[in-house]
Amino acid sequence: MVAIFTGACYTTPLIGAIIADSLLGRFRTILAFSTIYLLGIFLLTLSSWPPAGGVPGPGEDPTWWSYTILFSALGVIALGTGGIKPNVSAFGADQFNLARTQDRREKESFFNAFYASINLGSLIACTAVVYVQDQVSWTLGFAIPGFAMLLAICIFLAGRSVYVHVPPTESPVLRVIRVIGAALKNRRRKKKQLSPPSTVSHDDSLRAGQRGLTAAGRQTANGGNRADVPVLTASMSHKWLDDAITEWHTSQGQHMRIEGLTGYSPQQVEEVKLVLRLLPVFLSSILYWTIYTQMGAMFVNQGNIMNRDVKLGSSTVTMPAASMAVFNTISIILLIWVYDRLFEPGVRRLGYNMTMLRRAGWGMVIAALAMGAAAIVEAVRLRAYYKQFCTPCELDGPAAAGTPACGCNPGVPDVSIFWQAPQYVLIGLSEVFTSIAQIEFFYDQAPDVMRSCSMALGLLSTAMGSYLSGLLTYLVTVVTEHMGHQWLPKDLNQGRLDLFFLLMMVLMVANTAAFVAVAINYQYKTVEHKETRARHVKAAPTHLRSRSSPQVLESLVVPPQWISGPAAAQPMPFPSSSQPMAIGRRTPFTNVVPAESSDEEGDEDVEQYSRSLTYQPFLKTRGAPH
């Protein structure tokens, strides 16, 4: 049941991601699903409250109402999780202007801080909240996260007016299907007109059918207008998708289109290529999460048959095996700071570029070492068990160990559970490398219009890793039982958990080799980051500014009379759906309406912020100030 619930929590993000990318946007999706999540916590609290009838009495079996309210609560929580997980980290990263070098560096630190905050919350939940549930009341223990979630929603809403809001676009899934379908359909049809070039570029950058258009209010250092903004660079991968391109611009700026074929612009096709390039990384990341799952499964089973007594003065406390996960959580919180402040800057100074895939690969190596450490601990534990509870014949070989005829007695060897600490710390260190790198990778390398769906794809690898863990456990149990000595019996003292850990280590090493091959051949998304500012752009009249609407990234028509300097003499075309946008540093424009002229003039920096084609809707205007 735990595995099913965990898998559901990492599968439902596909639903939340599609809704965010194509319907509500990330902010509204997070808000809506946070409310659903809060409802789930309320139902879970209700299920543990005796007056509600969800708790069976002493000696009574749970009723249908008990099961109904419990499973309903878990289902609602899983659904709410699906709208939060893929969007919250992406929404945070949306707040950074990637045209600035400093913002790009701060975005990397944001993902580290984001993961540290998750583990800080986990630490509080696994210590203080668990203590309340165990020693005070389950109802109060469930109510505390409910109050915390309500407070989090209020804080999230408080910043609504200062967030950068990226509007939704068409369904990313439909976009991928349509582009692939158009490429296959066009390939089968003989083209009688001029075919589009394999790469359509200007300064090596795709212009999505809008090359040569000047950006309103943009000036270079020498006063000339240019449209140099961060845009996707043409890639050489998945060339067969280029058959879906039916309109483009030549190097002379002439618009070309093939009539009679369903197709897309180079930018739209390039975005689908990015999605397909993510799939090998996704597939080669699944086994890592299978290894990670062992921390909540086999590590706990191993700890249950170790010495868990902890002396506190004159008393002795039995430590729950699952509480060893605290070592994992604390190590993550500490090691993230070490990585972000010391390790990563240090290796950069030494000339080593820690790319996202390199970081993930090193984490997989560390995960394999964690399995090796667990195997060593289990081998030591088994040997101690043989010496303490078995007759000498059990020492003749592993196959004889645990045979009832040889006289093995049940018992727990005198091996402290704290010997598990290194393997928990190693898993935590691997998370600092692989898990954070995966979050950043699936955000950074995804098309702008599909970032929530891409984050959900990364979370799906976690769900599949959990399910794969269950499948591997089942296969190992069946195969080893057929071989005559089961590795994973109910009583692990009679099994070979150490060999299971070694098998997982070997699989992780093989998977890491495959991941390295994928990483070597992976072509990173190339984005040309250039930040330019208008040297003299008059501030918009006060009555044209919105002080209540959230900041939405939209194309902006800047009337000529608001621009001074050489740019004023340049033609001012209306912005198209793929044209870069200008966003006021302080207050965004939400509409341009007729108004009386104003004698007030002021200089205001205009930042250049670019997203992909479908993130820049045409702004309807009814005129311009005069």
At a glance:
This protein has 626 residues and is mainly alpha-helical. The protein is 52% helix and 4% strand. Residues 192-230, 399-405 and 532-626 have low confidence and may be disordered.
Radius of gyration: 29 Å
The overall strand count is: 8
**In DSSP terms, counting alpha (H) and pi (I) runs of 4 or more, how many helices?**
13
SSE ordering: HHHHHEHEEHHEEHHHHHEEE
- In one word, what is the shape? globular
N→C terminal distance: 67 Å
Largest sheet: 2 strands, parallel
Contiguous low-pLDDT stretches (5 residues minimum) are 192-230, 399-405, 532-626
Layout of helices and strands:
Elements (H helix, E strand, L loop, with lengths): L1 H10 L1 H35 L16 H31 L6 H35 L2 H21 L5 E2 L6 H17 L58 E3 L5 E3 L8 H28 L4 H7 L4 E4 L2 E4 L6 H25 L6 H34 L31 H24 L6 H33 L13 H25 L29 E2 L28 E4 L21 E4 L17
Give a structural overview.
With 626 residues, this protein is mainly alpha-helical. Among the domains are: 146 residues, no CATH class; 100 residues, no CATH class; 94 residues, no CATH class. Helix content is 52%, strand content 4%. The strands form four sheets. A two-stranded parallel ribbon has the order 1-6. It has a two-stranded antiparallel sheet with strand order 2-3. A two-stranded antiparallel sheet has the order 4-5. Helix 1 runs antiparallel to helix 12 and helix 2 crosses helix 3.
Features:
disordered C terminus, 52% helix, globular, two-stranded antiparallel sheet, mainly alpha, single chain, two-stranded parallel ribbon, 626 residues
